[in-house]
Amino acid sequence: MTPGRLRMELYERGVELGIASGQLAATAPKGVLTIELSALVKLHKAELLELLTLEARCSQLETRMGDLKAAADANELYGAQEAADQQWMQIGDILELEYFPVWDRLTALHNDEQPAAEKEAA
Prior knowledge:
Layout: H1 3-12, E1 16-20, E2 23-27, H2 35-43, H3 45-77, H4 81-110, H5 116-121
Antiparallel strand pairs: 1-2
Helix pairs in contact: 3-4
């Protein structure tokens, strides 16, 4: 099971994952975290932490790009095309240099790539 699939399984069972003081934190309804499910969480702990960190980073970048887009739209509306062009270029740089690499790794964790923890256990 990939970390992304495990995360979806946990979510569907009502388990909330988070990061507290750099550690994986989970809250779950009583009886939901079975021995098997707890073992999978422990096995994929590093990947789940990475997944949560990447999701948070994507969210931050999306907010930043949204703010830049709003500013660029306003600058275009008021005739400040040079400023708008700079903001559009910043968005392009964020996408290319930051967002796409983070998104690619996040996608890999959600897809069928075998995580390191499973490779070691095999």
